[in-house]
Amino acid sequence: xxxxxxxxxxxxxxxxxxxxxxxxxxxxxxxxxxxxxxxxxxxxxxxxxxxxxxxxxxxxxxxxxxxxxxxxxxxxxxxxxxxxxxxxxxxxxxxxxxxxxxxxxxxxxxxxxxxxxxxxxxxxxxxxxxxxxxxxxxxxxxxxxxxxxxxxxxxxxxxxxxxxxxxxxxxxxxxxxxxxxxxxxxxxxxxxxxxxxxxxxxxxxxxxxxxxxxxxxxxxxxxxxxxxxxxxxxxxxxxxxxxxxxxxxxxxxxxxxxxxxxxxxxxxxxxxxxxxxxxxxxxxxxxxxxxxxxxxxxxxxxxxxxxxxxxxxxxxxxxxxxxxxxxxxxxxxxxxxxxxxxxxxxxxxxxxxxxxxxxxxxxxxxxxxxxxxxxxxxxxxxxxxxxxxxxxxxxxxxxxxxxxxxxxxxxxxxxx
Length: 416
Fold this sequence. Notes:
Layout: H1 3-12, H2 14-22, E1 27-30, H3 32-38, E2 49-53, H4 57-64, E3 70-72, E4 80-85, E5 88-94, E6 99-100, E7 107-108, H5 115-120, E8 130-132, E9 138-139, H6 144-150, E10 152-153, H7 159-165, H8 169-179, E11 183-184, H9 186-194, H10 204-215, H11 221-229, H12 255-263, H13 268-277, H14 282-298, H15 305-315, H16 319-329, H17 333-347, H18 360-367, H19 373-389, H20 394-409
Parallel strand pairs: 2-5, 10-11
Antiparallel strand pairs: 1-2, 1-8, 3-4, 4-5, 6-7, 8-9
Helix pairs in contact: 8-10, 8-11, 10-12, 12-14, 14-16, 15-19
């Protein structure tokens, strides 16, 4: 890491650093930004900055008060104070010496005065580095810089201790392996096998958060294979076949779309069950199912005008995503899609608006019926006609409805 690379960061945090120096407290830059500086990843002004200090939470609040534009205390019980300073979010945490109760999902937090003890409690050596402020000295007691250079994934403490403390770290191992092209140490893999059942204490919300991060890695296949081979994946996505992993890198790095790719060959009932158990929102669950449905329907060749209108209306904004999933299911999708695209071009702007030219109130007056199920049936009939014949004017809709109602009522139409 060059001085040129770190100097802008040291200058940016100078004012905050001075506050801690004046209070006779230490301050270290830690977390992903330190790792990424050594991994030559792009560091931007939008990234949040994480710090650790020997100051206690109450002290931190007093120290940062003169320079903080905003203050967040939601993490205070875990020793973390969040501030906004110069347009960026900073999180400042008291050195930790935490461990997890064997049956608990939450850490039993205790504080430390020793930066090396704090770093020892972190998940992997590549994340157990700190930069001392204001001088910029690297603190690397577990050789994280060496491991990053050599492409090795290790834990500061034994993997058994690290993963017992927080079993979610086994999922994080998969993400860092895939994201930084690292090789897990043999003892790390063995610990994942041995401690797989401990993963059951991790909350669904935390699993989903980490799953989304893994799905957004550019080439996540190796990470998913690690989870599959160590038995972790079966604990929250047991139906997914490992052959689905190979397609992830061919798809846009969108967590929702890639989840659809994983579930594309899973029975819909099982997919819905897993998404519900993982606490996916209704909106994301619906999007995933809609994308998969759209992909599967492609193989019914909806390239005729009427079938394409129906498909397009049902899939809507997920048209391209459905195609991305379809080509992971069968190469024939390319040929069918080409025909569908010809139809889309031919239909042009009529696909922009599928609204019907008549309202429920108008239908009640037109057919002289009361409000109820018949109005819904009439609208459904008109929607079918819209798919079959394209755009319909108000007068055409009235004629269609009167003919439909006459046939339904076994009465002649009043319209000439």
